[in-house]
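Email to the structure team, subject: Bcr/CflA family efflux transporter model.

Hi all, the expression group asked for a predicted structure before they design truncation constructs. Nothing fancy, just the tokens so they can compare against earlier work. One-line instruction: predict Bcr/CflA family efflux transporter, return tokens.
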Amino acid sequence: MNIEKKKRNQLRFALLLGTFSALGPFTIDMYLPSFPEIVAQFGTTASLVQLSLTACLLGLGLGQLVMGTLSDVHGRRKPLLICMILYLAASFTCALAPNIEFFIVVRFLQGFAASAGIVISRAIVRDVYNGHELTKFFSLLMLVSNLAPLVAPVVGSGIISFTTWVGVFVVLGLIGIFLSIMTTWKLDETLPVEQRVPSNFMQVLRNFKSLLKDPQFAGYALAQGIMIAGVFAYVSGTPFIYQNIYGASPQLFAILFGSNGISLIIGSQIVGRLTHRVSERSFLLTGLLLAGCSSAAVLLAALVHGPLWALVIPLFFFVASIGMTATASFSLAMEHQSHVAGSAAALLGLIPFILGAVVSPLVGIAGEHTAVPLGVIILSTSVIALLAYLGLVRRPRKERAA
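Reply from the structure team: attached below.
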């Protein structure tokens, strides 16, 4: 009975932290279906509305760096609560924006505030768990948060079917209110005062420097970041490839895109379920090799202009490999960073955004009617991630001897 109660409590805890972690994807994806309506409302251009998305992504990336560090100094609850209040205020302000320029600025603030949900929820996981339990719980967290990119556009479409785009931001504001209440009443502080780092800017810089100079942390962080950058390329490239090259309908595209979202969940859950039998390093290496093989198949299919299924199947396995590598590398990178968990989680969150911003525009470098750049990019990210892991991560002598 106690075991069942522990499992229920763990699931509730994962749902709560998963909701915080999913705030980023909801903030990014939920308003995408309302782009044309926002263009008409403000009498602006599509590029300026897309700039609001860029501003949000920038806020999410920079915010993780700042809020992760502050959570190491001031604890987890206080920065998280402040950001949730800022988030709800920014969301309602977006709904009242008088022009596109103001909207873009507030979207940056909204993304910045949402970043706290991502980075601090991950730091909390490291505060509470370690070893295989850390991997297992993080895979559960990934299950919850990975549902957000699948659900958010559907929810956004449903909202604008009976109201305007303003309703999307009202709903996001209500989510901010809910999370503020949860932070106040349901979330305990997980970082004791004696374990917090000094409020010293130079010390913060030294913490980041020590993390980046740690070969194992750098290897895991780069492997994860480079692989997720490949996902950014996949996300930005497949809408054009499936619909423009292969003539897929929007409905078929949604099905194919959603199935790969499911593969991401499958990959992360395999790691969580089997972590007591198979080491995280083995899962990480397996995921990297799977990514290399599947991305090579994507490139081959693109070069010979194979049928649609010849792209869809290897992309399914490529995205599944991301679920494996992201879960395993996060657990391994955070394992020995309990003293600076917020800063470590911040770097793990920031690196994919930076690399993704660099990689995503390259998918369309040869135009919208070829899939070759996508194949080249995801194969390159897979190979470079594998080299980063092999070149920087060193197995302890005892493990090598075993």
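The chain has a mean pLDDT of 84. The chain has two domains: 15-131+151-196, 198-394. Ping us if the truncation boundaries need rechecking.
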